[in-house]
Specification:
Layout lengths: L4 H14 L5 E10 L4 E2 L4 E11 L11 E5 L3 E11 L2 E9 L2 E5 L15 E10 L8 E10 L11 E7 L24 H25 L1
Parallel strand pairs: 2-10
Antiparallel strand pairs: 1-3, 3-8, 4-7, 4-9, 5-6, 5-8, 9-10
C-alpha cells in the first residue's frame, strides 16, 4: 500500500510540530559575590545572571517546552525576570532549589518584522552548603525540558565554584619549661655560723689542753 505524497507531507508537518527543535540558551553575564574561585561553607552568595535565548525555529522558544533553572545553594531565593526587547514581560519570585519557566512566557514568533529579543535577568541569593574540599558546587544551572519532561540534548549548562580546601592543622606550640637556676655559692649567711662554731670548739679545746698542763 502506497501513501499519497499529501499524506506524507502532513505526517512530516505533524512530527515537526510535535518535536520542535530546542532553542540555544546563552549565558551573557554571570557575576558572583564574594568573588574568587573558592567559597567556604556558610558563605552567603549573591549571584546575578543575564541569559539570552537564541531561537532556532519559527519561535524564540517552544511553547510546549519548559526552562528549568537550578542551584546547589542552601536556602535559595530567586527573582527571575523574563525580558522582551529589553522590557520586563514577566516576573517570577521563587524559593527553592528549582525554578520552572513555562515555555509560553518565552515563546514569540520570529517571523514578525519587529525584533523579538527574549532573555532572562536572574537574581539569586543563598548559602554555600557543606561539601568535601575541592569539590564543585553548582551555583546556577539550567536546561530545556521537552513536553515529556526530558532534557533537550545540548541545552544543559552549569556555573560552578569550588569548595575551599581545609587549611593545614597548626601544630600547637609547647609551653616553655621553667628554667631552674644552677646552684650558686653558699651565702655568707649560711657559712658564717659554721665558721664561728668551729673557732669556738678550737678555743675550748685549747683551754682544756692548757689546764691539763
Amino acid at each position: 500500500m502506497r501513501l499519497s505524497p499529501a499524506l506524507l507531507i502532513l505526517s512530516a508537518c505533524f512530527l515537526t510540530r510535535a518535536s520542535p527543535a530546542g532553542a540555544t540558551i546563552v549565558a551573557r553575564d554571570i557575576r558572583v559575590e564574594p568573588a574568587g574561585d573558592f567559597l567556604h561553607a556558610g558563605d552567603t552568595v549573591n549571584l546575578t545572571a543575564v541569559i539570552e535565548i537564541v531561537p532556532s525555529g519559527a519561535t524564540t522558544f517552544a511553547e510546549t517546552h519548559t526552562l528549568s533553572l537550578a542551584t546547589g545553594l542552601r536556602d535559595p531565593h530567586w527573582n527571575v525576570v523574563v525580558t522582551l526587547d529589553g522590557n520586563n514581560a514577566a516576573v517570577i519570585p521563587k524559593e527553592g532549589s528549582r525554578v520552572y519557566v513555562n515555555g509560553f512566557l518565552l515563546s514569540y514568533p520570529t517571523t514578525r518584522p519587529t525584533t523579538q529579543d527574549v532573555g532572562l535577568e536572574i537574581e539569586l541569593r543563598g548559602n554555600i552548603p557543606s561539601a568535601p574540599p575541592d569539590s564543585e558546587i553548582m551555583l546556577i544551572g539550567w536546561e530545556e525540558l521537552n513536553a515529556q519532561g526530558r532534557a533537550v540534548t545540548g541545552s544543559g549548562y552549569q556555573f560552578n565554584r569550588v569548595a575551599a580546601p581545609v587549611p593545614p592543622e597548626e601544630t600547637p606550640s609547647l609551653a616553655p619549661t621553667e628554667r631552674q637556676n644552677p646552684p650558686g655559692p653558699a651565702t655568707t649567711e649560711t657559712t658564717l655560723p659554721v665558721i664561728v662554731s668551729i673557732l669556738a670548739l678550737c678555743l675550748i679545746s685549747s683551754r682544756a689542753t692548757l689546764k691539763r698542763r
